[in-house]
Amino acid sequence: MIRFIDEHRDQFGVELICRALRPAVRGFITSRGYRAAKTRPPSARRLSDDLLVPEVARLHAENYGVYGRRKMHALMRRQGWDIGRDQTERLMRAAGVRGVKRSKRTFTSKRDPATPLPADLVQRRFTADAPRRLWVADITYVATWSGFAYVAFVTDVYSRRIVGWNVAATLRADILPLQALNMAAWAADGDLDRLVHHADHGSNYLAVVYTDRIAELGAKPSTGTVGDSYDNALAEAVNGLYKTELIRQRGPWRSVEQVELATLEYVWWWNNARLHGELGMRTPFEVETEYYAAQEPILPATAGQETT
Question: Are residue 69 and residue 175 in the same domain, yes or no?
Fold first, then answer.
């Protein structure tokens, strides 16, 4: 009511507005009440909102404008603000921001019926007890003004980290998914003989050049059952979030090169800054850092040193 009077007082005057609306709007303030409210010092809540609303807007924008109440609440607390989830929701409304909703998934893989299928070593159990134990891979696409950009991701199930990715104008196995796999293998920089590589039945992933590369790395190939979309659900979830949080938010896209640059920035954010609910509102980087820190041996104290 105060805001309404402020917006129209120059045109109609405070007395006329209050007198005209008091019979029609139950609880409408009097002109005396308006003046008292204008001279009253701002409340603690008002001062807090004046401080927090811009902060909510800033953090929301820095995270691709996709966080809803749950993740914004976790992010604000990580930033040192002691606020509740309901308060976060109210501040988001005041800032005019909200989370994004995922749309329907699109499936792009086509199986070559003449190609033998590896066994399903995952059985929909998308869990791992350490990094480099289970990778899932999938392909999606982005429409641009100059044609389709195809995007391949390789994701480590343990930490949800995107360990390999590639953007290309072709679906050829030796160009699109193989380069993503090579990036993941290079970043791993270690023994992959305990790794299971899980993908769908797309001809890209069953091509000889791709399966031979998996064998060279010492990993075990795995695929789900035919016609079952849930057997590569985690990889498809990564694709869905990528399309929801980046592609549909920042489009339209002019070229494959523009998609590639944006994907580079998005993958960095996904791995290092994005809060994942499946990881207890931690980032993939934090999860892997904690894992490897726990694996470091505790060195015994040498003579003359004291343990604490």
Answer: no
Q: Could you give the 3-state DSSP secondary structure of residue 156?
A: strand
pTM: 0.82
The answer to whether 38 and 57 have CB atoms below 8 angstroms apart is: no
> For 39-57, how does the pLDDT look when each residue is reduced to its tens digit (9 = 90+)?
777 778 888 999 999 999 9
Helices (H) and strands (E) in the chain, counts: 13, 5
Contacts of 268 (CB under 8 A, 6+ apart): none
- Is there a domain that residue 112 lies in? no
Judgement on whether residues 71 and 158 belong to the same structural domain of the protein: no
| Integer Cα distance of 219 and 194 in angstroms | 6
Q: Which domain holds residue 77?
A: 45-95
Structure tokens at 127: 């869990």
pLDDT tens readout for residues 59-104? 999 999 999 999 999 999 999 999 999 999 999 999 999 999 876 6
253-258 contact pairs (CB < 8 A, 24+): 253/142, 253/143, 253/144, 253/145, 253/149, 254/144, 254/145, 254/146, 255/144, 255/145, 255/146, 255/149, 256/144, 256/146, 256/147, 256/149, 256/167, 256/168, 256/169, 258/144
Do residues 52 and 83 touch, judged by C-beta distance below 8 A? yes
Q: Among 13-27, 185-199, 287-301, which is the least confidently predicted range?
A: 13-27
Looking at the 3D structure of the chain, how many domains does it have? Answer: 3
Cα distance between residue 221 and residue 128, in whole Å: 16
- Give the integer Cα–Cα distance in Å for 240 and 171: 19
Checking 123-127 for CB contacts under 8 A at 24+ apart, the result is 124/224, 124/230, 124/231, 124/233, 126/157, 126/233, 126/234, 127/157
